[in-house]
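Colleagues,

For the teaching module next term, I've prepared a clean inverse folding example: a structure given as tokens, and then the sequence designed for it. I'd like students to try predicting residues themselves before seeing the answer, so please don't circulate the second half yet.
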């Protein structure tokens, strides 16, 4: 009689594993993909009371510029639906840029997109990676998210959509492709 009990126990264990795997695979199909086009309104004019990007640290005795290795910038750009600065605000791009390349060509980007619009309010997307500052399209990773974008992963591209050097105002288009649950 004991010999019949052992195969029955293995069969029950096998059924439990199949059920757990099926449940996991069913949940994995809940993965969603969202594509967003956002516009960062960027004012880099140091000393301008409306500046949204300012240098906060750098190498002593060196100019704190976008191309000087070691310069750290903090940003709080407002994000709009279109390139027009008067279009509805979607959220804020808050974080840091560090000129990380000795040659001044690359910056390390750490940005949180903090949504304030009705559709995604309170959710965030975390972006990180090396941005080749002078390439027309710069790609970085989406490494996390919260709220609607919980467990986010994907990528984002940055393109300079508009640049006015005398006023140091620019519009950066950020295209985000993110997978989340």
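(Answer key — instructors only)
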């Amino acid at each position: 009689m004991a010999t019949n009990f052992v195969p029955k126990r293995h069969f029950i264990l096998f059924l439990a594993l199949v059920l757990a795997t099926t449940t996991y695979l069913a949940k994995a199909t809940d993965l969603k993909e969202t594509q967003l086009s956002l516009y960062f309104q960027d004012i880099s004019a140091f000393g301008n009371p409306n500046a949204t990007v300012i240098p906060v640290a750098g190498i002593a005795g060196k100019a704190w510029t976008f191309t000087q290795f070691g310069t750290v910038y903090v940003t709080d750009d407002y994000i709009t639906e279109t390139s027009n600065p008067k279009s509805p605000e979607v959220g804020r791009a808050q974080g840091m840029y560090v000129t990380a390349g000795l040659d001044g060509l690359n910056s390390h980007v750490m940005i949180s997109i903090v949504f304030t619009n009705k559709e995604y309010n309170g959710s965030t997307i975390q972006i990180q990676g090396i941005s080749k500052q002078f390439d027309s399209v710069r790609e970085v990773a989406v490494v996390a998210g919260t709220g609607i974008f919980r467990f986010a992963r994907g990528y984002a591209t940055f393109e300079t959509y508009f640049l006015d050097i005398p006023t140091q105002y620019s519009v950066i288009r950020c295209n985000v492709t993110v997978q989340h649950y």
